[in-house]
Known about the structure:
Number of domains: 2
Shape: globular
CATH topology of the largest domain: Ribosomal Protein S5, domain 2
Number of helices: 11
Helix content: 25-40%
Strand order of the largest sheet: 5-4-6-3-1-13
CATH architecture of the largest domain: 2-Layer Sandwich
Radius of gyration: 21 Å
CATH class of the largest domain: Alpha Beta
Order of helices and strands: HEEEEEHEHHHEEEHHHHHEEHEE
Strand content: 15-25%
Bound molecules: alpha-D-galactopyranose
Number of strands: 13
Amino acid sequence: MTTTTDTTGTFERLYGHAPEGVWAAPGRVNLIGEHTDYNDGFVLPIALPQSVRAQVRRRADGVLRLSSTRVPGEVVELDVAALAPGGVSGWAAYPAAVVWTLRQAGHPVGGADVLLDSDVPGGAGLSSSAALECAVAIAYNDLHGLGLDAPGLALLAQRAENEFVGVPCGIMDQMASMTCRAGAALHLDARDLSARHVPLDLAGADLALLVIDTRVQHDLADGAYAALRAGCERAAELLGLPALRDLAAADLPAALDRLPAELVPLVRHVVTENGRVEQAVAELERRGPAALGPILTAGHASLRDDYRTSCPETDLAVATAVAAGALGARMTGGGFGGSVIALVETAVADTVVKAVTGASAFAGHAEPRVYRAVPSEGARRLS
Length: 383
Ligand code: GLA
């Protein structure tokens, strides 16, 4: 993980003037509620301390100049009026997407000089793309006085990713990045975006939340995500429901009897996973964070056996963490690689990390990177 500190100097060297401000938007990990957001269901993410920072200065000539400290020396120059879905590739597509979407939504915004700096690990299932979109969205909102609120900006960032980048993601990552609070998890209803900040004091309970980045991302990730989403939508249609969120747990057995075999495990995951989110919030409030452990591990089993978004690397990390004393563990995010979270008593954190690292090495997998996640603040202006 790299953190660049002298980015104001870099901005001036690149563009010949100072930025008007600096905005930050964090990555996230989801505690529970995976693949439920696009089924109008519930999720429980926290924001990470790692964030994308965007330094921005408006330009009057309709030119959007983009650079990133991760690709030193490269400046992507785009004509804002000519932006079109699919027309920009790589990392620059995300900030360009936000500017295109703002204009599509009727906001009178133009070009800018933008320098991005990030310590959110990329390709690790920690929402570095959503963080990038949200940092640019909040910067434009402030600089142009657009008056959009945090959920409005999250929806805009999601639309940018759906329509311009072409990834059919749900709303969880952008809402987490925009609206999470330090010391709390975000209990979000993805249907109407109503949300509650549930206090989560890990340190006070002598616990740590490890984020284990397996450093693998399997190629099927994008196509498989879209296929799973389409499968869920088909199942809801066959059941005559607006979304799978509308299927009550009590009606699950009867509903499964009416579905083609390939949709059964998908629906079972979504319905039981929504139940796990509600159970997690109740347990968190009644018994404290340690009670989340078994719910996390049950969520992983459902992703592994029913939704099939786990993979050998995440399965091994979860099984090893639990065997080494974690209270619970699961893959987090879209899947097919990416990161695993493990809830551990602080005293056994090092033992768990050692066990997971050793097991990965023994299996010939990439060496995982491990972070400790602290529930952190959502998107904000830094200066
Ligand atoms: C990705 C998507 C989210 C969500 C998760 C799975 O992170 O961007 O919208 O669907 O996968 O829970």
